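Lecture 7 notes: from sequence to structure.

We start with a single chain of 285 residues. Read the sequence below before looking at the structure.
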Amino acid sequence: MKKSILNGVMGGVVAALVSSAAWAEPVDDELVIDGDIKMVVRTKAPEGHPFDEIRSGWQYRTKETRALEVDSFNNPGMLRVEEGEGIWNTADGTEGKSCADCHGDASESMKEVAAHYPKWDAQSNRPINIELMINKCRTERMGAEAYEFDKGGQKSLTAYIKHQALGTPVSIDLTQGDMQSWWEKGKEEYYTRTGQLNLSCSNCHEDNAGNYIRADHLSMGQVNGFPVYRLKQADLVSLHNRFRGCIRDTRAEQPKAFSDELMALEVYVTWRGTGLSVETPAVRN
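Now the structure, written as tokens:
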């Protein structure tokens, strides 16, 4: 009885925040970057997805925000990508190696790589994302210290590597190792209500996709553009930073970055965007 009352109260909170009158369809504009790279911003959802069609968060943004992503010269996130290129070519650690020493020209060696992460890592017996793969290379190949979460060159180097896959459709392999069970864990977390506000990811990005919450237009919560440049922070924001921020906003305890909870969520949410182009660095509110 108490639980049903609580759910009713919190449902009222959501109703107060999200006005049914504030519905607005996403735009149908096409995204072509630099007049050359045509992006997939809407596509048929993968089998088992709650939506029939999925859309990039780019289509939910204002005209002015969308315009920033159309031209790389105007995209403020590209400054961090350029910084990442410098890190890629800089030797570090006791081995005196750079990323380029092993992988060469990133535009070739990393061309489609990021579109297929997270992947299964047999050594750690869990999924691994680009940030963790960078740290693995740093500690095992370069003799360098692992980056702390969101510190050092982690965001810039991640953005640089992901940018090489610009335009490539997202596709992760759930048949690798135990990826399917992590997908299932991530799905459970996506639909689990947390915090004092008793909200789940699905309450915003599924139940209310297309509605306005305060001054923000709720998208389907796709992650194909991370790290994204958020105008609010005037900087790149990593995926796990955004996960933690959403959880914080429900007034729940935040899991640590790269924890099992957030890695499972990354697997599931990445899958939800299957077929959308990698947009890194996307520009969002």
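DSSP finds eleven helices and twelve strands in the chain. Keep this in mind for problem set 3.
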